[in-house]
Specification:
This protein is an alpha+beta fold. The strands form 2 sheets. A 4-stranded antiparallel β-sheet has the order 1-4-5-6, with no helix packed on it. Among the domains are: about 50-115, no CATH class; about 115-205, no CATH class. It is about 40% helix and about 15% strand. α3 (about 115-125) packs across α5 and α4 (about 145-155) runs antiparallel to α5 (about 160-175). The protein is built from 8 helices and 7 strands.
Length: about 240
C-alpha cells in the first residue's frame, strides 16, 4: 500500500525498502528509544532458538510431512525418524546429529516438493509405480524430459515407456541433468531412437545438441511506401 505495488525484484530489494521505511518512521522516536535502551538488561549468553523443530518419520515413498507440506528426502532414510528444522526460508533435515538436506520452504498447506534424485533408485526398482505416482509432475525436471516421456509412451506403450524414461532420469541423476537434456534434444530433433542407452552414448561422445535453425526472410522496405501511398488504407 505504501509503494503502490508488492512486486519487488528480489528479497534484498524488499529488505532495503523496509530499512528505509523503519528509518523514516523511527526518526521522531529516537529520544524515547534511548530512554528505553538505558533500562535494558544484558542479553542472554546464548541465542534463543527461534526455529521450529519437528520429529517426523520418512514414509515408504521417501517423503516427510512438515507443517502439512510434503518434502522428499533420500530413499536410504525410508522408515527412519528425522528432525525437521523449519526456518523462515528453508527446511533442514537432520539425521543422527548431521544435516542431510536443506530444502526451500514451501508456503501454504498441502504442497509438495519432490526431487527425482531422492527417489529415482526406488522408482527404478518399482517402475510400475511411476504411472500412478501422486507427485509424478515433479519428476519432469524440464519440458524436454516431459517431451521425452510422451514420445517413449507413444512409441513403446505406458509400461515400457515409463521404464525407459526412468532409465533416462537415473542417467540425469548420475551424470548431470543438463547433459541428459542436451542428449534428449538431439535425439528428438534428429528423429533418432530415444533411449537411456542412446543418451548415455551421446554423453560419452560429447556430441553437442544442434540448435534449431530459424530462417527469417529479409523484409522489403518498399511495402511501407505502398501503405503510405495507398488511397484507401483499409482496402
Amino acid at each position: 500500500m505504501l509503494r503502490g505495488s508488492r512486486d519487488f525484484v528480489s528479497v534484498a530489494a524488499y529488505q532495503l525498502f523496509l530499512q528505509k521505511l523503519f528509518k523514516r518512521l523511527n526518526t521522531g522516536r529516537q529520544d524515547r528509544y534511548l530512554e528505553e535502551v538505558s533500562k535494558l538488561q544484558a542479553l542472554p549468553e546464548h541465542r534463543l532458538d527461534t526455529m521450529r523443530r519437528e520429529r517426523v518419520r520418512v514414509s515408504p515413498g521417501s517423503l516427510v510431512t512438515v507443517h502439512r507440506n510434503y518434502y522428499s528426502v533420500h530413499s536410504r532414510l525410508i522408515g527412519e525418524m528425522v528432525e525437521a528444522r523449519v526456518l523462515p526460508d528453508t527446511v533442514e533435515i537432520w539425521y543422527a546429529d548431521r544435516k542431510v538436506e536443506e530444502l526451500p520452504r514451501l508456503r501454504g498447506r498441502g504442497k509438495h516438493r519432490v526431487d527425482y534424485r531422492h527417489i529415482i533408485d526406488w522408482l527404478v526398482r518399482k517402475p510400475g509405480a511411476f504411472e500412478n505416482y501422486r507427485y509424478r509432475s515433479d519428476l519432469f525436471p524440464t519440458s524436454w524430459f516431459r517431451l521425452a516421456y510422451d514420445a517413449l509412451r507413444e512409441e513403446q506403450g505406458p509400461k515400457r515407456g515409463a521404464r525407459e524414461y526412468l532409465g533416462i532420469l537415473l542417467l540425469a541423476a548420475r551424470r548431470g541433468e543438463d547433459l541428459v537434456e542436451e542428449a534428449i534434444r538431439f535425439l528428438l530433433g534428429s528423429r533418432q531412437d530415444l533411449s537411456a542407452e542412446q543418451a548415455a552414448r551421446l554423453i560419452e561422445e560429447n556430441t553437442p545438441a544442434p540448435l534449431s535453425a530459424i530462417t527469417i526472410d529479409p523484409v522489403c522496405l518498399s511495402i511501407f511506401d505502398e501503405l503510405l501511398t495507398r488511397e484507401d488504407p483499409a482496402a
